[in-house]
Amino acid sequence: MIGPNARAAAPAQSGPDPSTWSPDTLASMPLEALMEVKVVSTASLFAQPVSDAPAAVVVLTADDIRNYGWRTLADALGSLPGLYTSNDRTYAYLGARGFRRPGDYNSRFLLLIDGMRINDAVYDQAPIGSDFPLDLDLVERIEYVPGPGSAVYGSNALFGVINVITKKGAAFNGAQVATSVGSFGEKRGRATYGWHGSSGADLVLSATSYVRSGQDLYYREFDTPEQNNGVAKGLDYERAQSFFGKFAYRDFTFSAGHGNRTKGAPDAPYGADFNTPFSTTDTHSFVNASYRHAVTDGLEVASEVFWERYDYRSPSYFSSVLNIDGDKAIWYGADVHATLTAIARNKIVIGMNATRDASRDQYNFNVDPYQSLLDDHHSANLFGIYAEDEIQLTRRLTLNAGVRFDKESVSGPNVSPRLALIFKATPNDTFKLVYGRSYRAPNAYELYYAYPGTDGQAGNASLKPEHITTTEFIYDRKVGNSGHATVSLFHNDVRNLITETLDAAGLFQFQNIDHVQANGVELAYEQQFSSGASVRASYSWQTSRNVDTGAALQDSPRHLGKLNVFVPVFHHNARVGAELRCASSRVAQANTSAAGYCLGNVTLGTNRLIPHADLSFSVYNVTDKRYADPAGPGFTQNVIEQQSRTFLAKLVYSF
């Protein structure tokens, strides 16, 4: 496990120099001040202004989540430069800078909640859809650090690190309830209690329930009388529950969460019988305790211990036989690191952690007649040590150097360096040259999952870790008092890429076969206005190809465009948040393609109609655009049609 809860932005009091702040400084800062100085803590293990971070970091706030009506983490991340999402009607997937592998469960991104790793111990999945075990109303901010992050966080941080930082009890200051209703039977309810004591103690308790009946969907690939003429009836449903609690007192923080989501799978993946019951249930549970203490003015020590569990279960029918597929993952560990600022011109972080993957179990069996097809039990250990130093070479020139050594019982040793040279040409202009190398160890699903028969899969215990080497040039420009522009040029080189392919026996198998390169440029601009209005826009051009074959990668758009505009109206009595997301065409399976698209979403809101209440109404896919995403290798379809226009009305009431 990588990175204690204390690594998350968790603030105390602002000082004149952001470089002297601890991560605890951030959480107590007013949002207005936070937006002005743009301080982050995920890129390094200490708080620093965005302009000093060794990456093109982007921050989303609780106001962004409310103003644009985002319901899932995927909704929020899809608004960021260089990121794009896709969906197969069961899970949401994330791509970055032209790279998203079909069949990959977001294992090349590291997802954190308050600095605690959420990727599970079997699939390494980063859950960003409705399976994310936290209600977005509890999120204070989201920090996204693009590029390789293994020098700080170890495995999985190939294309970026996402840190979801939760609200404190002071943000609620009492009880709050929320309810929403929307298209296709969508209903959500939340109850939250927040308390902040005069002694500094802080408490958050929250529970959420969600249900959606979904819609009947047509698939032309199954359009036969025996398969209900291609109509999957009543299989797009979804239901979820989540619970979260966090208590902090002085240097201690304790948090626990649980999320359970069941989603119907209407598109009959992996050769399942069409228009028959098929669902997946994902359950995440976690407990985390952290301690952060300033030993002296120049030395701070932070530590955490954690326990997590992930269970997956999927009943489906194959040739009219009920089959159950699933896994159980349990992992726990500890992390400790020290931050030393007593040495002039240096900020040094030294730490180590250990993780025990106690259970990486996978199973598959037919119910009647009973037949066990897979009953696999494995465990693993990880030990890592890391060090980072931010060296002020001159008044304008800073070197950020970090390295991490990981020893995994399955994949062996890995060394991950990162170097960033940061030059402040003027108070408003910063240039960064960043070099990094990250790795991803093969997960238990890729190593051990095996079952016979049509559309079967073979394990591959000889898989090696994949590695990415990234070189990036970043120009960061402060525009006036409230504007910010960024230009990023990047080159990614990925070797030993783990790819799902067909072996000689016709079974799916993961193999280290690909060498991939990606090049591109990202342009981003955001502006806050004195009226309270804001605008955020980005454009990305990227090209990704297989070096060995010269072929373009699947699900890799050449162009991405984003626009988010927020405007308070009627003398701040109401608000309007509008966004536009555009993506060019993408290569799909069997030499087909998914056409490009532009989607618009609009959210209207007010907190003036009902005392103590906030009302909002959102329209998603305003023009009812018909578009599709490339499907993974286990699907009969080459592309999966996406959601039509939907509506959502929401009420939040504070007592």
Helix content: under 10%
Number of helices: 6
Tell me the name of the CATH homologous superfamily.
TonB-dependent receptor, beta-barrel domain
Would you state the CATH class?
Mainly Beta
Give the quaternary arrangement of the chains.
single chain
| Shape, per Cα inertia axes | globular
Structural class: mainly beta
Number of strands: 38
Distance between the termini: 38 Å
Low-pLDDT residue spans:
1-36
Radius of gyration: 24 Å
Average pLDDT rating: 91
Give the SSE layout:
Blueprint: H1 24-27, H2 31-37, E1 39-40, E2 48-49, E3 58-61, H3 62-68, H4 73-77, E4 83-87, E5 92-96, E6 110-113, E7 116-117, E8 139-146, H5 150-153, E9 160-166, E10 174-182, E11 186-196, E12 202-212, E13 217-218, E14 231-232, E15 238-249, E16 252-264, E17 279-296, E18 299-318, E19 321-340, E20 346-366, E21 371-376, E22 380-392, E23 397-408, E24 412-424, E25 429-440, H6 444-448, E26 466-479, E27 483-502, E28 508-528, E29 534-546, E30 559-569, E31 574-583, E32 586-587, E33 593-594, E34 597-606, E35 613-620, E36 628-630, E37 639-641, E38 646-654
Parallel strand pairs: 6-9
Antiparallel strand pairs: 1-2, 3-8, 4-5, 6-7, 8-9, 10-11, 10-38, 11-12, 12-15, 13-14, 15-16, 16-17, 17-18, 18-19, 19-20, 20-21, 20-22, 22-23, 23-24, 24-25, 25-26, 26-27, 27-28, 28-29, 29-30, 30-31, 31-34, 32-33, 34-35, 35-38, 36-37
